[in-house]
């Protein structure tokens, strides 16, 4: 039956060349949604076969069906919760029953509970059948893998390619943008986005997010209006952001009762069939409560981020009460500031604002209190937290409270000390070592013949330094020649000499240490430059460790010789950067000033370094900014032998001004405290560049030990054998 319905869906496709509505309008209005997992699987099969129109139809219908399933669960949950016969009996958690003891009253309460559960189940089943067709939500179960794929917006990655093949460029750009918002470091999509922007037939308004949650769109617009001192226009958008946030939480909470949510939790915990009736009921209910509490963080997490905006609802209420006060709506300002005090009763700024509003109003307003929607949210949340902490204390359940505002009185006393200890624990990885006295690194710099040009204070920041004299002009020349020879040999790793994904006006070329060693081993470049590349990278590591981390060893995690070249004829009225502002181990969010240390960022990187080789180009200066990515705090001009080293976190956002003429080359290095993330290619390159005499000595040692067990070939030698057979150098790791 499902196959027949999907076949009918394909027949509903518009003929080639016919207009297609933007976005994701349903292809079969009024029809019940089909199983999203089957639609998605068929869409991928059609995509793999090059059947672009059927792939688009099936992928869009999968998105529509998943959205319809979520709406149905939310609406049915609200409808059935309001059914009088389906209301659960209100008995406190720690009250086993009425005062009459373990008798008929307890049995009556048990019957009330189970009868209400049966009535609620009946209501949900009937509602689901009406909204979703026979079988209801059970027929449309979505597995964990598919939910993750939709969360990452993977269908849009396939949609943009299929739309491109169908010559629907505006829709392709919209799908690409939608995917890119949730995956901001996806290199291939970044390149595709740059291509779409260069296409004359793609309109600027096509770059829109088809999945933007309504509360984030309203929130961002409201904050933007507030920033322009337009409080009266900002108020409706901020109020909409609050209401949409609460609605999004309700939708998320409805999904917590879905069968796939319980199934995934049971698979993770290895539970689900253990214990008797009440143990199973309790386990299921605990998982529902845990999921509901997570909805707060899910709603406060922007697309493409893994961590929520801290204190999202209280901060939104703070913006609301300030905006109301600016336009003279003191009653509404008081409502919102009183709501803030529900979260944080001792908030000094909120109490001060409340006193000001009361003074301006003059007479007391007896009916004026916190917002009812916020009161309901807090009371319900606290009730769920009490049950979860009870389960932690008595049933051994786990619960990570997502809210910093939870009152201590809600947490059982026996758990408070343990939770406090867990919060105070800080692994050594997150505690930078205390710097040694200045004489320690000064001695190292003196030994290396290096001079300190600018320290962190002169660079208006923290953990930044500019050192000069790391390379002689002759050494710079050797490394520049290495980059040139490698380019001519066609060994462009990274972006393979194509236009940079950061700017369409520049060409980007990168050379790793292993690629340089392989080219030298093959005779395509001189071995002097490849060996110097290894030596210099170790020199930079030694100095960076001496200056920033003398008590803890640093390891090279990635090394790359990078050249950026201006493309002639494309520099007039150029407005973009050579490399946009970013941080090296976290995802920078300029809107909030936060930097999320989470994948896809290289979170293990602790210090960064840029060793410059030349200055005969225009533009290309390195600059540091405030977390807003706009306010420049320091700027450094490249020159031969100059090293700029800095910590890789959100305290050092940086970018590169456009290279408008010439070629800018530098050695980019990243260091880590974690030995498991040290650069293995560096060791392989060193092995590959050993002199023949050294290799002969090793072979003699091997001949003396014939009983040694055979081991796999080193990766470098396997690569060389592949090269010998095919005549081509294999592609090695490429990294941004």
What strand order characterises the main sheet?
1-2-12-8-15-4-3
- Give the helix/strand class: alpha+beta
User: Hey, roughly how much beta strand do the residues contain?
Assistant: 5-15%
Shape: globular
Mean of residue pLDDT values? 79
Number of strands: 15
Residue ranges: pLDDT <50 for 5 or more in a row?
Answer: 1-27, 92-100, 260-273, 426-439, 491-497, 697-736
- N-end to C-end Cα span: 48 Å
The count of helical stretches stands at 25
Could you list some keywords that capture this structure?
736 residues, alpha+beta, seven-stranded antiparallel sheet, four-stranded antiparallel sheet, globular, disordered N terminus, procollagen-proline 3-dioxygenase, iron, TPR repeat, endoplasmic reticulum
Give structural notes:
- By secondary structure, the chain is α+β, with helices and mostly antiparallel strands.
- 51% of the residues lie in helices and 10% in strands.
- It is built from 25 helices and 15 strands.
- A seven-stranded antiparallel β-sheet has the order 1-2-12-8-15-4-3. A four-stranded antiparallel β-sheet has the order 5-13-10-11, with no helix packed on it.
- α20 packs across α22.
- The longest helix is centred in the first third of the chain and has 30 residues, at 52-81.
- The protein is globular and about 90 Å long.
- Mean pLDDT is 79; it is low at 1-27, 92-100, 260-273, 426-439, 491-497 and 697-736.
- Residues 250-273, 681-736 are annotated as: Disordered.
